[in-house]
Write a structure and sequence with these properties.
Blueprint (H helix, E strand, L loop, with lengths): L1 H12 L5 H23 L22 E8 L9 E5 L7 H14 L4 E6 L5 H13 L4 E5 L7
Parallel strand pairs: 1-3, 3-4
Antiparallel strand pairs: 1-2
């Protein structure tokens, strides 16, 4: 009789509750789903330059502002240039400069990433670079597509 009781106690001691682990996994799924949407929202679809011999690295920056420069009409190279901050709609360079002033007050070591369509003339990108420099932002990156065998 003693051996029968010991086996029953052992079987009862090995039961694990899976409910807390399911809760944790569910919360992690929600967190990563939200973070993924926010990260992709600042990337506007455009054709980035593809340098042949580039030593550029894909670096993730914290406390950054992404400025997108693209053609108003992708089919017409002579069309105007649209400037936007992250996922926001296009706006004037004066408005972008005002946004940079506010962001610079919030984050002292603010970083700016400029994404420009490869069909834009450099003068259109240089104007944005000058706006960044006028706001005394010391860290500025230009984005180009760096891929294997392209």
């Amino acid at each position: 009789m003693l051996s029968v009781r010991k086996t029953k106690l052992r079987r009862q001691a090995l039961i694990l509750s899976m409910a807390p682990m399911v809760d944790v996994v569910f919360l992690l799924l929600i967190f990563f789903a939200l973070v993924t949407r926010f990260a992709s929202a600042e990337n506007v679809q455009m054709d980035l330059p593809k340098p042949e011999h580039s030593a550029a690295q894909n670096v993730q920056l914290k406390d950054r502002v992404v400025i997108n420069c693209r053609l108003a009409d992708p089919g017409d190279i002579g069309a105007g240039v649209l400037y936007s901050v992250g996922p926001y709609p296009p706006e004037s360079l004066e408005r972008i400069s005002a946004r940079l002033v506010v962001a610079k007050k919030a984050v002292e070591d603010l970083k700016v990433v400029i994404r420009a369509d490869r069909r834009l003339p450099f003068a259109a990108v240089r104007v944005v670079m000058q706006v960044v420099a006028e706001n005394r932002i010391e860290m500025m990156n230009l984005v180009a597509h760096v891929g294997e065998g392209e």
